Amino acid sequence: MRHWRAILLLPLAAALTGCVPFPHTVTLSPALSGVVETAGQPLKDVGVFLASGPQDRPCDTVLQAVKTDETGAFTLPRRSQLRILYAPLVAPLTVTEFTVCLSTARGPVVGYRGFAFHSRDNTFALHCDLERLAQRDMQPLSSNAGGICTPPQRPETSAGSGQ
Q1: Would you say 57 and 109 are in contact if contact means Cβ atoms under 8 Å apart?
Q2: Where in the chain are the domains?
Q3: Which residue has the higher pLDDT, 160 or 131?
Q4: What are residue 123's DSSP bridge partners?
């Protein structure tokens, strides 16, 4: 009889802490696509990979890897994970950092660092220009400030348009 009380009280205790049993899928990294080039020319067979690692070595652990095609294009599918417990008070605010790295003759370099919101199914499109490596004399591993990939620019609105 005692065990039944514990079994019945467990869901109540979880609910009081803000966690409820509710299977759901969270985004670990969005779908990523883009082009790798240098001096306007597409680069074939460049390794592009989703990675994780400490701040000083963000490209250490490869989570997904692809190579560019003859047009320099790459696609990394969205990564998600099934979770059993749901925390309604914090789940909408949960984000995951992701790092896109590229294999170069100088070793792996950070292409882009971004955040994935668990409640959104975003797709990131990146433009990666390896010419930026030579222009900036970057270290092989760098922060996003020196990243060589950029998302497409949003169109600017004029000051008087009210938009």
Answers
A1: no
A2: 19-150
A3: 131
A4: 31
Classify burial at 31, counting beta carbons within 10 Å of its beta carbon; exposed 0-12, middle 13-18, buried 19 or more: middle
pLDDT tens-digit map of 110-138: 888 887 665 555 678 899 998 887 766 54
CATH: 2.40.30.170, 2.60.40.10, 3.40.50.450, 3.30.70.270. Which one for 19-150?
2.60.40.10
Single pTM value for the model = 0.70
CA distance linking residue 146 with residue 113, whole number of Å: 10
Tell me: the pLDDT tens digits for 76-93? 998 888 878 777 666 555
Look at residues 24, 42, 31 and name the one whose alpha carbon lies nearest to residue 131: 42
Tokens in use for 70? 């003859």
Biggest CA–CA distance in the chain, Å, is 74
Tokens read off for 108: 């792996």
Residue 142, both tokens: 């760098």
Residue carrying the six token digits 């660092």: 113
